[in-house]
Amino acid sequence: MFGIKRMNRKHIYLFTTTLLLFFLQSSCEGYRCAEGIVIDASTNLPLDSVFCNVKTGKETMYTDTIGRFEVCNQFGGCVPDCKDIIVEFSKNGYKTILLKNEQCNGTIYLER
Predict the structure, then answer these.
(1) Helices then strands, each counted (H, E), the chain
(2) How far apart (Å, rounded) are the C-alpha atoms in residues 33 and 84?
(3) Model confidence over 92-101: pLDDT tens digits?
(4) Which of 33, 80, 29, 39 is nearest to 57 (CA)?
(5) Residue 102 has pLDDT above 70, yes or no
(6) Which of 5, 40, 71, 94 is the most exposed place for a label (fewest CB within 10 A)?
């Protein structure tokens, strides 16, 4: 009978340790996002239908009628830093650009 109680304690300890490690690992998960507006560099007018492709993830979208976009990369570890986000902006008649992290936020200028 004493051996069964001791075995239960071992199982509880193992379960608790496993659960704790799981939560510590999942708390380090994170992702980066990018949002802003895409503008024609020569006219300063917003560009709709600019293709925004997250190269570090699977998300893609097109800017709306006023040039807005918002994308995120996939979840990744945050030790010591969150996974980078790299976004490609492209539209017919414009140069394609590739931006990383903070460069992806705010106003993005596309040149013809």
Answers:
(1) 1, 9
(2) 9
(3) 999 999 999 8
(4) 33
(5) yes
(6) 5
Cα separation, 18 vs 30, whole angstroms:
21
As a whole number of angstroms, the distance between CA 32 and CA 85 comes to 6
Average pLDDT, the chain: 81
Strands 106-110 and 33-40: parallel
CA nearest neighbour of 85 among 68, 63, 70: 70
pTM of the model: 0.70
How far is CA 96 from its chain centroid?
A: 20
Measured over the CA atoms of residue 100, residue 55, residue 107 and residue 95, the dihedral's sign is positive
